[in-house]
Amino acid sequence: MEIRPLEELRAADDLSLAFTPCGLGGRMTPEDATEFQQRQIADCDLAEGVAAGTRDSFERLRTVFAYGVLCYDVYTMVGDQALLIYEQALRDRFMEWCSGTITFRLPQAPDVSYTVTSYDDVKKRADKMTRQRAKLVVDTHAIEFNGMLHGLRLWARTAGLLRGRRSRAVEDALAKLRNHVAHPSGHHVDTPVGAARTVRDLAELINQLWGQATPDGRLYPAPLHREITVLSWNGSGRARMEPAGALTASDPMEDDESDAYQYVVVRAIPFIPGSRWNDAHWAEFDTRYDTTRFPTDYLWGPGTREEARAWLERERPEGDSVDFTDRVFLVQDHGRLWPPMRPAVAAGLPEAERAGVWHAVRADFPDDAFAHVRGSRDRSTGHARHPGDCPACSAEVLGSGTHDEALRAAATALGPIQAVHLPSVRLPSSIFWPDRP
Ligand SMILES: [Zn+2]
User: Fold this and answer.
1) Distance (Å, rounded) from C-alpha 234 to C-alpha 263?
2) How far apart are CA 151 and CA 425, in angstroms?
3) pLDDT at residue 258 is higher than 70
4) I need a labelling partner for 236 at 20 to 30 A (CA). Which of 11, 53, 209, 339 fits?
C-alpha cells in the first residue's frame, strides 16, 4: 500500500464536509464539520449501571465517530461496529440477569439448572440444550434459546427488558443489519447521518436494557407528561385546545365568543410548538373511541366555559405522565371496521353494541392497531391472523372472536379490566377518523 504522510492523514475528507445541517450539497469548513458531527451524538450518554464491557465499546465508538471528518470510511465502520455492540449489550445484560445460573425445561422432565461464568458457557450450554429440544426458563415462560442474537432478542422481550411495538420493528431491522455485518454479502457505505442514527438508537437500546427510558427518545421514550387541557368546539365545526390555566386565569367577560362553544376537560399531551410529541389528532377526541394518537383521558363535560372553570377550581385536577407504548386496543368489525376502543370502554358497552367480530391488538398507536386489522382482512398482505407478533407491521395480535373473547384476550395481557361508562362526547369534525357510528 501507499504510505501517506501525517499531514495528509490530518486533512479533512471532502466527502465528510459535504454533510451540513441542511443536508447534502453544501460544504462545511473542517472545523465546523468536526463540531457539527460530534454534536449529533454528543448527548447520548449511557445510564449508570450499564456493564463495563458494553460501556467501553460504546465510548470507543463515540470517540472514533469524531474521526469521520478525516476519513469518510469511518462512518461505515462505526455503523457496523454499533451493530456488533448491540449483540454485546444483550450478552452482558443476559449475564447480569441470570446471575450465574440458567435453567432449562425439558419435555416431560424436571427443570435443570447450570452454573455459567461467561457468555461462552451460556452459548455452549444453550447449543447443547437446544439439540435436546429444551427451552430456557424466563420467569414464568420457557423460550427457544440457542444463545444467538435471535434467542437473545426473544429473551430480552420475554424478560420485559425491552418494550414498545414500533421499537420492536426497529430491533428486527437492526438484527437483519447485524447479520449482514457479520456475514457480509456485498458492499455498503454508511453516511454520517446513518451512522449517527445507529449510534443514537444503540444508546437508547442499551439504556433501556438497563432500565432507563430515554427522555424524548425515538425508540424507548420516557413517559410523556400530560396536562389538564380544555377542548371546545362550536356549531360551525371549529375546535380549540387550551391549557386549563387559560380558563382559570381569564376574566369570564373577556371571551365574547365563548358562549357559542361547548367545553370538555381532559388530561392530554399539551401542545408545544415544535415538539415531536404534539398530538396531530387531538381534535378527533371521542370518549367512545381512542381516536387521538396519544392517550387522552376524559375528566368532565360537556358544558359552558363558566361551568368548566367552576369545575376546575373546585376539583383542581393534576397532570400526570403516561407511557403510550404497548397499549391494548379492541377493534370492532361489524358491517365495517370501527376505530380502536379502549378495553375498559368496550367492557362497559350495552349488549346491543357488542355485535360482530372483535380484535384485541397491542400497538403503540391506535392507527397502528387499525391498519393491522384492516390489513389482516386480506390474506395476501401477510399480516398475522393468529396471536403473536405481526410480521408485516408493528402490531401484536392478542386474540379475536366475539366481544367476550376479545375482551378475555385483552385481560390476559392487561389483568382484570374494570368497565367504564363515559358520557358520549366527541368533537364534531373529523379528518382522520370520519367513519364512526
Ligand atoms: Zn400487521
Assistant:
1) 9
2) 47
3) no
4) 339
Q: Where are the beta strands (DSSP E) in 51-184?
A: 101-105, 112-115, 135-138, 141-143
Q: What is the 3-state secondary structure (H, E, C) of 28-59?
A: CCHHHHHHHHHHHCCCCCCCCCCCHHHHHHHH
Q: Going by C-beta distance under 8 Å and a sequence separation of 6 or more, which residues neighbour residue 434?
A: none
Q: How far is the CA of 426 from the centre of ligand 1 (A)?
A: 28
pLDDT tens column, 292-348: 999 999 999 999 999 999 999 999 999 999 999 999 999 999 989 999 999 999 999
CA 383 to ligand 1 center in whole angstroms: 4
Q: Which residues, 6+ apart, have CB-to-CB distance to 395 below 8 Å? A: 165, 361, 362, 363, 368, 369, 371, 372, 383, 384
Residue 277 has what DSSP assignment?
A: T
Residues 190-223 have pLDDT tens digits of 889 889 999 999 999 999 999 999 998 999 999 9
Q: Are strands 336-337 and 135-138 parallel, antiparallel or unpaired?
A: unpaired
Alpha-carbon span 265 to 250, nearest angstrom: 16
**For residue 423, what is its C-alpha cell?**
358520557
pLDDT reading at 249 higher than 80: no
- Return the domain boundaries, the chain: 6-94+161-209, 101-154, 224-322, 327-414
Q: Where are the beta strands (DSSP E) in 251-403?
A: 261-268, 297-303, 320-322, 327-334, 336-337, 357-363, 388-389, 396-401
Which amino acid does the sequence have at 25?
G
State the distance from the centre of ligand 1 to the C-alpha of 329, rounded, in angstroms: 14
**Whole-Å CA distances, 253 to 256, 267, 432:** 7, 26, 35
In terms of Cβ atoms closer than 10 Å to its own Cβ (0-12, 13-18, 19+), residue 367 is middle
**387 C-alpha to ligand 1 centroid (Å):** 11
